[in-house]
Amino acid sequence: MTYNLTPRAPRDDEAPQIINICAQSGLFTSEELAGFSEQIAADAAAGTLGEQWRVAGRTGIEAAAFFGPEQIADGVWNLWFIAVLPDRRGSAIGTQLIADVEREAAKQGARLLIVETSGDANFAATRRFYRARGYEEEAKIRDWYGDGSDKIIFRKRT
């Protein structure tokens, strides 16, 4: 099923739903989830959750993305992650959400969008997702996450 939805900036009161998506996605370690929870809570408390987060869903929030500018590079933005509820994968919700992130970043001056992900076998679908959406593998840093666990860096012009 393809969703017909409009990705949007989240409301500050939707922070718990975003944390839930991160947890259910199965993509993150407990340390990463703790960091995201702190970031989401801080952004919500400051009233800025909608500045670097985007959400999408047909019934509630079913996918979330976190992105923002690289502080030391001109026009380079990072897509730190995109997470989709497991039972919504394959529905095109992630495709619509990443396209929205790309538009938002470009509107705010991004010329490049960078994505960093794992080279581990359990992230093969993640890497295929980015490649299918026009992201090019720019670099691989061997053993980044641990011995035998590489970091793969993708890039796309906005």
UniProtKB/TrEMBL annotation:
<dbReference type="Pfam" id="PF00583">
    <property type="entry name" value="Acetyltransf_1"/>
</dbReference>
<dbReference type="InterPro" id="IPR000182">
    <property type="entry name" value="GNAT_dom"/>
</dbReference>
<feature type="domain" description="N-acetyltransferase">
    <location>
        <begin position="5"/>
        <end position="158"/>
    </location>
</feature>
<dbReference type="InterPro" id="IPR016181">
    <property type="entry name" value="Acyl_CoA_acyltransferase"/>
</dbReference>
<dbReference type="GO" id="GO:0016747">
    <property type="term" value="F:acyltransferase activity, transferring groups other than amino-acyl groups"/>
</dbReference>
<protein>
    <recommendedName>
        <fullName>N-acetyltransferase domain-containing protein</fullName>
    </recommendedName>
</protein>
